[in-house]
Amino acid sequence: MRVSVIGCGHLGIPHAAAMAEIGHEVIGVDLDQAKINRLNAGECPIYEEGLPDLLATHTASGRLRFTTDLAAAAAFADVHFLAVGTPIDADGRSYDTGQVFGAARALAPHLIRPCVIIGKSTVTVGTTRDLATLLARLAPAGTDVEVVWNPEFLREGHAIEDTLRPDRIVVGVPSPHAEDVVREVYAPLLHNQIPLFVTDPATAELIKGAANAYLGMKISFINGVADMCAAAGADVHQLTEAIGLDPRIGRGGLNAGPGYGGGCLPKDVRAFTASAQSLGALDAATLLRAAEQVNESRPTAALALIEQTLGRPVAGARVTVWGASFKAGTDDVRESPALAVAALMHQRGATVTVHDPHAVPTALVRHPELDYAEDLEESVKGAELIVLATEWPQFRDADPKALSALVEQPILVDLRNLLNADTWRTAGWTVRQLGRPAQP
């Protein structure tokens, strides 16, 4: 099939490359000409594992190309994926769907034949309905333009894997014809026994928000329990392993840390909370808001552990933070817990140097007040304390003996419980881990 992907960011680029990988001819559309030029040259403007190779392969073959011309996309494709951003609105609680409706308005005059618009962005309930009404009014093809909502469930750092081998595909469809088109688009995946969950558009819109809200609550729950473990002298890691064996609970996503971040989870929990409030589901709104409050407290909780380990306030201390991206496998620093902790220590008077294997350039844009190091060894020179805040394998595999000669004090706070603490302690380090008892 010929498909377009409108919006070339953390969602659109991996989706376009994956659609080419499963055999479609794909045109990606974005307003940023410089980005388009890089993409057409096979260069990847974001870091996402596996993406550069797919991008280079399919731009070279001609199966995948990029443009700023919506008219060309409309003439080329009969299926159009909307993958534009839906940031949190000015109210701080709901989605700003301006880019979704803006893209639809710009595309509409060029839709002169029947086609299917497939929304990928995370949106407020009712967006599919409103978008279909708008396109029926503005597009020459009128009601022959159908709108499907097909929310993404990508984990950044695993976007290609999650697109090509998802655990499920959810689609909210307005008609049997639209469902047939979706089945044709995803036929190579369905052939591999990927389940397709077909529902109405409103339910599809809510499924994405409910999934991320539940994950946010799960993370906040175990972080709240980590606080209890710290107060009791208990071990959150052992606790997590034990309760995760219960199939009703499950181990996935049940990891104590500095909180959830990124471009999706925080805004999805906020927006789902707002939806619960507006729908009158007040008990649900209260529960969801509590999960938000736990997450919002994580930088302060991390600072308390850091200062306890250091033995004094961080004012005047030289601290190295390992990690800038909100999670490993991506250079995305939106609402990064690692940077939130780094910025808080800077505000309290510490000199903070941040190192990340891939996210230093993006972090520098958002937090120019911090110092940065491109090299791991260089980042720790003269440090009084290292804080491990993002679970990159490069940090897990670092050599504690070699690093101990570079630091002023071999002290490390592991906010991700990533390290083998005994190995580091044997090398002479003082190591504290989140929600775990202090060891000599």
From TrEMBL:
Gene Ontology molecular function: NAD binding; UDP-glucose 6-dehydrogenase activity
Top-rank taxon, per record: Bacteria
Gene3D superfamilies, from UniProt?
Cytochrome c1, transmembrane anchor, C-terminal, NAD(P)-binding Rossmann-like Domain
The record's catalysed reaction(s) read:
UDP-alpha-D-glucose + 2 NAD(+) + H2O = UDP-alpha-D-glucuronate + 2 NADH + 3 H(+)
Q: Which UniProt keywords apply?
A: NAD, Oxidoreductase
EC numbers listed for it are 1.1.1.22
List the active site: 264
Enzyme class comes to oxidoreductase
Pathway the protein takes part in: Nucleotide-sugar biosynthesis; UDP-alpha-D-glucuronate biosynthesis; UDP-alpha-D-glucuronate from UDP-alpha-D-glucose: step 1/1
Tell me which Gene Ontology terms the entry assigns under biological process.
polysaccharide biosynthetic process
Annotated positions binding NAD(+): 30, 35, 86, 122, 156, 267, 334
Checking InterPro entries in the record gives: 6-PGluconate_DH-like_C_sf, NAD(P)-bd_dom_sf, UDP-Glc/GDP-Man, UDP-Glc/GDP-Man_DH_C, UDP-Glc/GDP-Man_DH_C_sf, UDP-Glc/GDP-Man_DH_dimer, UDP-Glc/GDP-Man_DH_N, UDPglc_DH_bac
The segment(s) forming the UDP-glucose/GDP-mannose dehydrogenase C-terminal domain are 320-421
> Which residues are involved in binding substrate?
153-156, 208, 261, 327
Q: Which PANTHER family match?
A: UDP-GLUCOSE 6-DEHYDROGENASE TUAD
Annotated family: Belongs to the UDP-glucose/GDP-mannose dehydrogenase family.
Specify the protein name.
Answer: UDP-glucose 6-dehydrogenase
Q: What's the source species for this entry?
A: Streptomyces telluris
